[in-house]
Amino acid sequence: MTQPMRHISFNVTVIRRQPRVDSKRKSRELKQGSALRAAAYQRGTALTNTQSLKRYDFRGKEDVSHCEIMAPLNAPDWVFDPMSLWNKAETAERRKDAQLCRAIIASLPQDLTPEQNIELVKKWVSNNLTIRGMAVDIAFHSLSTPNPHAHMLMPMRRLEGNGFAPHKARELNNRTWVKSLRTTMAQCQTDALRAAGINRFMFAESYRSLNSQLVPTLHLGAACTALAKRGFSTPRSDFNGQARAVNEQLHKYRWSVEDDHALEQLEAELLELEHDLEALPTQTIMMPQTVQELARDADHHARLAMDVDVVPEPLGTGL
């Protein structure tokens, strides 16, 4: 029997140098984006800005499985050294509010081995990014856990000669191009799964755009994940459990439904889940103060580590 379709998580953001207010701490502290900080974070290492001498140290990060820099053929040797690559990338952007780099985060199939996931990402990067003249710093996280994913950083400029091109590759900011990246990543994962003997279809479109009755799950985030590891339940994790159960039953009856009562029961459960989803943002979670602090700290570090502007969700209504 064909196994269920699965949706990939694939996000593209741009890291800027522009100062911003750290609203999570509810202070007027100004923080600046940094490509060096983002690279150090995803690699779980320490990198230093050679101009300001500011050091970004994330050597305590434990979920980094593998790191690698990919570049076009005949790229200079300095490209493959993260300290040199990201210092030169920041120096190339002179504006005080400059865009410094593109950051991509992609979920990976749990059914593949770490080696297979590494190979599929390298193939995708080669076919979509380095072929366009881009250098890509890749870090694989949690490959042996239920949450394997890859972080990819790209400078804003193509490599040209022994340095960067004089102009940014602005066409890579096009939404159509970003959408094509999601589609090709989904296809690459599907091909890798089939090569491993797993008949599963990965897709980047929403269930609604595919006219599917499957119920989408919600992103848990760092705070919910941290709470789940300590045995706490949240509305989002509860909803995801119900959604997976309904999806499993929908898939079971996908091709032939002989039991009308079972079908009616599934439709009723779908309707109930839709009501739960609409009501979810207004639900409040009552937690001990220590757990609130845990969620607040976990969410703060996960969202601000790469200096990407994100509007924080209020604790208790965003979990």
Word description of this protein:
The protein is of the alpha+beta class. It folds into 2 domains: 6-195, BirA Bifunctional Protein, domain 2; 221-304, no CATH class. Helices cover 37% and strands 17% of the residues. The protein contains 8 helices and 13 strands. Helix 3 (114-128) packs antiparallel against helix 4 (175-195). The radius of gyration is 22 Å and the shape is globular. It starts with 5 loop residues before the first strand and ends in a 15-residue tail after the last helix.
Write the CATH architecture name of the largest domain. 2-Layer Sandwich
Task: State Rg.
Answer: 22 Å
Strand order of the biggest β-sheet = 2-8-10-9-7
Structure class: alpha+beta
Give the gist of this structure:
This protein has helices at 35-43, 82-92, 114-128, 175-195, 221-229, 235-252, 260-279, 289-304; strands spanning 6-7, 10-16, 20-21, 30-31, 46-48, 55-57, 64-70, 99-107, 136-141, 149-155, 159-160, 163-164, 202-203. It is of the alpha+beta class.
